[in-house]
Design brief:
The structure is a single chain. The protein is α+β, with helices and mostly antiparallel strands and about 550 residues long. The chain has 11 helices and 26 strands. The strands form 7 sheets. Strands 5, 6, 7, 8, 9, 10, 11 and 25 form an 8-stranded antiparallel β-sheet that branches. Helix 1 packs parallel to helix 2. The longest helix has 15 residues. It starts with about 70 loop residues before the first strand and ends in an 8-residue tail after the last strand.
């Protein structure tokens, strides 16, 4: 299938009707291309294919009932003025109402949501003030085998904010990613990593620094009822917003630092290195974001690892990588495995609901391993039969696709860290009236037909390892990387199990979160935990 930047505008498109019987090269894959001519709801005035007839429903104008989303698309309570920076044309919005927007949401969910038939029918749009809050409840109540909500992923975002973040990793902040190791008193919040060139980097902040004071508030001892200002300061919403932070490093408290929120551009590949002597080298690659700019950085990193005789093994650190564009994941998997392992194989088969809402053929849903850059240049390859991933509960979606796709073509994927987030699902983001909606639109399975990992990928036996904030990422002494190197050399991580005491775990303090309850990044946008595609017109 053709991939497109997830932030790109949705052009008017006509996609072929679903193909009939087609032989699959994938053993055991029976995912159909869907029946019925269900809605192809497009938002913002860009319908997908030919507008379908209205679905049954009252269409009474108050957001209740179900109408075809294309009949109310772009009818906005507050139409956007000016020119869309993506298309160079005026926004397609026309004057409408909040109820029109809620009607669009309900129609779009009924047409495109993977589990549209599991949405409770007792919900009423009139009980919700905005289209966004209405959207929030329009999802399945089902749970996974472990008891977690099957759909934990519904969310919305301002369209322009989403475009900037998905295309270039641009967001408002200080350039420091923080992790809450212990959320209650005595609270422990650490810096997980710092973006190069950011205000945090300019202030000399580094991984592992412990936050102790924010705007005069004692972070460690303030009661839970009074901690919200801390998290608001860590999550600035406006350019120029200023807050004062005091950090402690190796037990020594530093001077207060004033940080001003700026536009921060993510550096997806922050660090690449080789470890060990020639002939037995291990590559290490820290990869944090599946965004457009990652392509060039991943190509450069792989070329670096290929120099001077190359590497024999790879440790791919995606503990902080929540996902993003599926094309980037496919490129990365190909660069790890190489042509021999992936030629003619499927990276991921996308399965939509039984209405086939995007009118895709089965062939279009068979996603190959992408072998070239967007400019058509061949990607470099490492040709490895084994790779070790460093993971956490924040390793999600497109990052999990890398694991699943490599295993699907016979590459051994070892996992060190903690269980991944469990998201074999993805989105076709859709704008309407300045809000981009993210509902689960498809599920992905690998070459072997596997995609049931709603509870995540667990580490190898004995390889549950806590995050280590006392060492830089990429340091062979850092706990997860050290365990990966031991696994490679001895066949065992020799790490504490999930029941080990936190006090015995480097990087944690007595009473902190143990390894079976992963420290969580703060703040973390849902945009960081995605598997995203955008659909292009079918070839003619």
């Amino acid at each position: 299938m053709a991939f497109h930047n997830a932030g790109a505008s949705r052009r008017s498109r006509t996609l072929a009707a679903c193909a009939g019987a087609m032989a699959l090269a994938l053993a055991g894959l029976l995912a159909g291309c869907g029946g019925g001519g269900g809605g192809g709801g497009g938002g913002g005035g860009f319908p997908i294919g030919v507008a379908p007839p209205p679905n049954p429903g009252s269409g009474n104008g108050n957001g209740d009932g179900i109408v075809a989303s294309s009949t109310v698309a772009g009818q906005c309570a507050a139409p956007r003025p000016g020119i869309n920076p993506e298309t160079g044309r005026a926004y397609p919005d026309v004057a409408g109402t909040v109820d029109n927007e809620k009607s669009w949401v309900r129609g779009w969910i009924d047409e495109t949501y993977l589990w549209y038939d599991e949405v409770p029918t007792t919900l009423k749009a009139s009980d919700y003030a905005t289209p966004q809050t209405w959207f929030d409840v329009l999802k399945t109540p089902a749970t996974t085998p472990s008891g977690r909500a099957k759909d934990r992923f519904h969310f919305t975002n301002n369209t322009e904010t989403y475009r900037q973040q998905s295309e270039g990793g641009v967001s408002v902040g200080y350039g420091m990613e923080t992790a809450t190791v212990r959320s209650s008193v005595p609270r422990n919040i650490r810096i997980a990593f710092v973006e190069p060139g950011s205000p945090a980097a300019a202030a000399g902040l580094v991984r592992g620094a412990k936050l102790v004071i924010v705007d005069g508030i004692d972070v460690v001892s303030v009661p839970d009822s009074e901690r919200d200002p801390i998290f608001r300061a860590l999550s600035p919403r406006a350019l120029g917003e200023k807050h004062t932070f005091t950090f402690e490093v190796d037990g020594t408290r530093g001077s207060p630092i004033e940080l001003t929120a700026q536009r921060i551009t993510s550096t997806p590949v922050q660090f690449t290195r080789t470890i060990g002597p020639a002939g037995s080298r291990v590559g290490y690659l820290l990869f944090n974001d599946h965004i457009t700019t990652a392509e060039a950085q991943l190509v450069a990193a792989v070329n670096t690892l290929k120099q001077d005789g190359g590497i024999q093994d790879l440790v791919l650190d995606m503990r902080y990588n929540g996902g993003g564009q599926l094309r980037i994941a496919s490129q990365l998997a190909y660069m790890v495995a190489g042509a021999a392992a992936t030629n003619g194989k499927t990276f991921e088969l996308l399965t939509f609901n039984d209405k086939n809402p995007y009118h895709r053929t089965l062939a279009q849903n068979l996603t190959p391993f992408v072998t070239t850059t967007r400019a058509g240049q061949p990607l470099p390859t490492l040709n490895l039969s084994r790779v070790t991933l460093l993971t956490s509960g924040g390793t999600c979606s497109a990052s999990e696709s890398v694991i699943n796709s490599l295993r699907g073509v016979g590459v051994t994927v070892n996992i060190v860290g903690t269980t991944t987030c469990g998201k074999p699902y993805g989105f076709v983001p859709q704008d309407n009236c300045g809000t981009t909606y993210f509902a689960v639109n498809f599920k992905g399975v690998n070459q072997a037909g596997f995609g049931d990992y709603g509870d995540g990928f667990a580490p190898n036996a004995g390889c549950v390892v806590s995050d280590d904030f006392n060492h830089p990422l990429g340091d062979p002494a850092e706990r997860r990387l050290a365990a990966a190197l031991r696994l490679r050399d001895t066949g065992s991580c020799a790490a504490p199990t999930a029941s080990a005491k936190a006090a015995d775990t480097p990087g944690l303090e007595k009473g902190d979160t143990p390894v079976d309850d992963e420290p969580v990044l703060l703040p973390r946008s849902p945009l960081r935990e995605n598997r995203l595609i955008d659909l292009l017109p079918a070839p003619v």
